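To assess whether ligand presence alters the predicted conformation, the chain was also submitted together with 6-O-phosphono-beta-D-glucopyranose. Input:
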Amino acid sequence: AHGAKDLLVVFGITGDLARKMTLRALYRLERRQLLDCRVIGVASTEMSTAQLVEHARTAVADSGETLDDAVFRRFADRLTYVHGDVLDDALYARIADEVGPGAKPLFYLEMPPALFGPIVEHLGAAGLLRDASVAVEKPFGHDLASARELNARLRALLDEDQLLRVDHFLGKEPVIELEYLRFANPALAGLWDRGSVSAVQITMAEDFGVEDRGKFYDAVGALRDVVQNHLLQVLALVAMEPPAGADADSLRDKKAELLKAVRAVDPAQCVRGQYDGYRQIPGVAHDSQTETFVALRLEIDNWRWAEVPFFLRAGKNMPVRATEVRLMLRRAPRLPFLPSPAQAERNQIVLRIDPDPGLRLQLVAQDGESWRPVHLDASFARDLGEPLEPYERLLHSALAGEHSLFTREDSVEESWRIVQPLIDAPPPLHSYQPGSLGPAEAQQLLHGHPGWHQPWTGSDGKQPG
Ligand code: BG6
């Protein structure tokens, strides 16, 4: 087994992800006194370690952190810069010099996926993989075949427990909280199946467009960008059975089992949308068929969820930023003393992932002659304090040798299998207005079930307006 690491090597230290996320996360870990190793930054730009330190200072400050000089100095003392071409053996000789004998490095590849294979092969040839782990960022493949190929290529040199596939949604506090909430609370556990739940809605709405990522996004689209990875990982945690042990694989076994039970999507049960104006974005093809919105219906073939549809939707340029999981409970029976709309209104359990994580239980209460919905709301920030940010948590876990928050080979391949029919035969594309919740056709997917619910927005559970 491969345990804790004592050195972090970041490939692509001058890139976008490092500038926006990694350097900030490392600085914050330093401030919490949770960082305890050297950090080697690798990139192709010719510059000195002092220049990397300045780059890091700017990146951390630009990310909105107030810089504490003493903390930053401690962090800067950990940094070393190594430059070179990732396809050149000479770079790996320099890295080996810096790493030194006996180290247990974590190599974090913040690089285009086409380079994962070549970099790992070079690391292997330089003898650097023996006590190492390798973390890779998404996208992990662009369809089932390429994901399998990539897994095979990396696994030729790495054991599964040396390979950490990063999905930053798994570092989000409310996503981690799901397992605990579901299984530590009989009040939830007892409702969490087809006996009480009639449908589940998972929404990821973003109130901004593709802006400066046109070239990247146009080759990817909403399905590959956030559904195959983030939303199917959330679905696995929402729907899995309880893990049998405390180790990382007990949890990952249950997630993989659940994904195995999800039927591949029927393209007739999927609606794709593209917002007006998308094709004018630099880097986007003028006749692009890429979706910026996708909604789909999933079926899970097991005893817990048979006949309970899971509706997923994700879109750019929506009216709100909101990521949530909403369980629609079954109707109450018709009882003579209940006004009929109250009987028609569903109880709901909502887990809000972003922004302002929390949990809401929607009930119906009598109100004079009539009835109205009432809410029991918990705000995690208020009740549980400020959590680690996703990249802080993932880096910390990876360095600690704790792998439950990283996606395993089987669940990555299962999730590609689930969406593959939509890649083979993409459903028609509908346009939608920026600032709307996607094309009207997305409502028809839910026929026979309560329609898409407005996301829970506003703090303390109050809907704005
Ligand atoms: C990324 C996607 O993985 O996740 C982006 O590439 C998306 O398109 C982002 O905006 C959303 O992450 P978060 O943490 O802001 O919800």
